[in-house]
Task: inverse folding
């Protein structure tokens, strides 16, 4: 157990050392969440200016921006960290070390968590200082939103890493596009009923639709939507198990095909 | 006890037979050279020994562990170096050694890094990014990484490729010393025949995925009636009847 934790720490240290030695990389982590918050924050301010009673809608907009960034940053945190190993041509050394695949995944998730917290901190402060919006006022339910949205980012990321095992660095673009592509179905800013009927089952199969329904319940009715949150948890478990199965299968196939040797080429 | 036992190893891709029923053993404290032209099956064989690649059939036992079901126990006691696989270039040399020290669960890591720094004369660039080093410096760092866990088995792919003669000689001396002091086994894939003659107890000549000849370098040279191993290598590579 101690050796296992040390191997995980070794991989976390490897990535923390990169950020410690490069301020542009650290700034990059917070760049998009901050930019998003500025754009949507000014948009929300404008809404409130032309429609003074739109405070709750503006709050939902800002909360949605901040919370959806958890999934986006969580996913990018895993896939970007894995891609870093491909770009530095270091995977060969890692896969012939005693690091188990599960330990590698644990380190990817830990780095992703660190990156997400660092990335969202400035946006949260800007929301408070510029737009007088305090996300912490959502209360303890915010923690449940955070955990569920992070999990969603992680299972998307594990599926993308599995695709990288299968298709190599040629699948790199997926790391940047998949989670953003899901955004219209995540129902961040509108309820599922706003979607065409035929798209609604797809949205409902994603935890995000239920989490953001819970967010709107917390904001508009000041109540926790436990049934929706329970569905989000259940869906996250199912999707995570599916992603782990795909990851394990693709890793095993990559070892059979020899793809671990040539993944960066 | 043998460090490596390979029995009837086969690796078949969709349309290619990369390794064709090879068997060999490497005793503790021995140095085995794996020779062959491009596409002979050396890299595929090393990849299977490292657990990067799953064999189609056959078995590999490393340091008493079956690589099919217990590879991590073996990987903890072996290490690998190749100029074709880089260490993270943005990390400093010290950070790189620290990362791999943690991965190999090295006790008293800072003391071990200090010893390797002295042994490989890394002090002047210990805190420089690995990507900014010269080829010779990178090779020294890669070897320091390969020895960080004091491996009982060392796999080396072209350990002196692109090195000047002085640095190449230095690396060979380090490997000879390490084998003697740690009774370590070393498997070496190289195109440098003089290096193989100097270091290896036994040589496996590979061609088209098969081991076409084997033996101590001087014995192979005598058998082919040649002056050095390079001529033996050329004889085998250019003779279409061998491994046809």
Result:
């Amino acid at each position: 157990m101690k050796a296992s934790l040390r191997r995980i720490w070794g991989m976390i240290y490897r990535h923390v050392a990169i950020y410690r030695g490069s301020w542009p990389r650290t700034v990059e982590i917070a760049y998009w969440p901050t930019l998003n918050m500025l754009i949507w924050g000014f948009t929300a301010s404008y809404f409130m200016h032309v429609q003074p009673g739109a405070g709750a809608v503006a709050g939902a907009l800002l909360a949605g921006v901040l919370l959806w960034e958890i999934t986006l940053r969580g996913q990018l945190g895993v896939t970007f960290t894995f891609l870093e190993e491909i770009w530095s041509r270091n995977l060969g050394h890692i896969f012939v070390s005693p690091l188990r695949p599960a330990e590698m995944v644990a380190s990817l998730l830990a780095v992703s968590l660190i990156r997400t917290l660092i990335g969202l901190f400035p946006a949260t402060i800007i929301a408070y200082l510029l737009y007088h919006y305090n996300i912490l006022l959502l209360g303890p339910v915010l923690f449940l939103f955070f955990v569920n949205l992070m999990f969603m980012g992680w299972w998307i990321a594990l599926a993308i890493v599995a695709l990288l095992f299968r298709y190599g660095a040629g699948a790199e673009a997926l790391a940047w596009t998949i989670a953003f592509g899901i955004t219209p179905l995540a129902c961040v800013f509108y309820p599922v009923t706003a979607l065409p009927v035929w798209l609604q089952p797809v949205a409902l199969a994603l935890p995000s639709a239920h989490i953001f329904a819970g967010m709107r319940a917390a904001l508009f009715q000041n109540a926790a939507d436990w049934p929706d949150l329970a569905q989000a948890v259940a869906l996250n478990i199912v999707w995570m198990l599916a992603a782990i199965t795909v990851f394990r299968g693709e890793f095993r196939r990559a070892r059979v095909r020899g793809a671990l040797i040539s993944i960066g080429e | 006890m043998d460090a490596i036992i390979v029995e009837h190893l086969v690796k078949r891709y969709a349309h290619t037979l990369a390794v064709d029923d090879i068997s060999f053993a490497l005793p503790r404290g021995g140095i085995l050279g794996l020779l062959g032209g491009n596409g002979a099956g050396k890299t595929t064989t090393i990849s299977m020994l490292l657990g990067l690649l799953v064999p189609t059939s056959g078995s590999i036992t490393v340091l008493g562990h079956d690589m099919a079901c217990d590879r991590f126990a073996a990987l903890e006691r072996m290490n690998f170096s190749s100029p074709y696989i880089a260490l993270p270039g943005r990390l400093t040399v010290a950070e790189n050694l620290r990362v791999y020290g943690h991965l190999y669960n090295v006790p008293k890591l800072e003391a071990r890094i200090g010893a390797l720094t002295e042994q490989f004369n890394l002090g002047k660039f210990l805190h420089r990014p690995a990507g900014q080093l010269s080829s010779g410096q990178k090779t020294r760092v890669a070897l320091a990484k390969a020895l960080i866990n004091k491996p009982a088995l060392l796999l080396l792919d072209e350990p002196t490729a692109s090195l000047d003669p002085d640095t190449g000689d230095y690396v060979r001396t380090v490997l000879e010393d390490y084998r003697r002091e740690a009774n370590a086994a070393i498997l070496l894939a190289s195109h440098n025949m003089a290096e193989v003659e100097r270091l290896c107890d036994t040589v496996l000549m590979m061609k088209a995925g098969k081991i076409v000849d084997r033996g101590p370098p001087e014995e192979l040279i005598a058998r082919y009636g040649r002056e050095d191993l390079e001529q033996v290598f050329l004889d085998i590579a250019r003779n279409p009847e061998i491994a046809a």
About this structure: Chain A touches chain B through 31 residues (CB under 8 Å). DSSP finds eleven helices and no strands in chain A. Chain A has one domain: 2-262. The two ends of chain A are 35 Å apart (CA to CA).
